[in-house]
Amino acid sequence: MKPEAPPTLAAEDASRLTDFARACKAAARAVALYPGGHPSIATTLGRIVQLNSPVNQSAPMRITVLTDTLLLDGGALARPEQAVSELATLLHEHLVGEITIHAGGDIEGWRTFVQLLGRSADEVRADGGIARLWATIAGRHIELREIDYAEVLREKSGGDLATWDRVINNALQGDTQPMDDESLRGLLEIAQDPERLGNLVDALKRSHLVPRHLHQLRHRRE
Predict the structure, then answer these.
(1) Model pLDDT for residues 98-114, shown as the tens digit of each residue
(2) Which end of the chain is more exposed for a tag (fewer CB within 10 A), N or C?
(3) Contact by Cβ (8 Å): 65, 96
């Protein structure tokens, strides 16, 4: 069954999500290109601070991360937006499933977050995962929920759709464990069974959380 499409965002909310994504991408570029004291960094980070100040943000922004776009409070853009797609891809590579932004973050807090996103996803996972690293920094203006694909594989008993749905509903967490040998073996077992692989991918797709490597494995098997 095809996943139900999310509702379309109102124009004001769509603009808010797009502006935030553009500001994040601009800040990420500036932090990557210039030395720490360069005025472009302060300018781009200041734009994020302005957008998410208590004056401009009356409630937390709850953003769901899909493979190639973002949802704001469950709503989607009416048409694709490059900055939103690029930020979604970056967050997805770090296995971020949901991000909640509270008003009041300062320039240094956002600088730290952008620098963390700029690190290699493999390097971040080797250090414990982005949610764990962010928690140690104690960045209170952002809450991250990371998808624990290892838990998805560990609880794969039977592979029936009801089990997959239950597992996926509990897959988002704030503290995740690296994928262990048992989970890797489980992934390999699933990859050899088209039906079980299909069940996993379909369940993940229903939750908009399908990891790229599983989607590619399924197509190769088919």
Answers:
(1) 999 999 999 999 999 99
(2) N
(3) yes
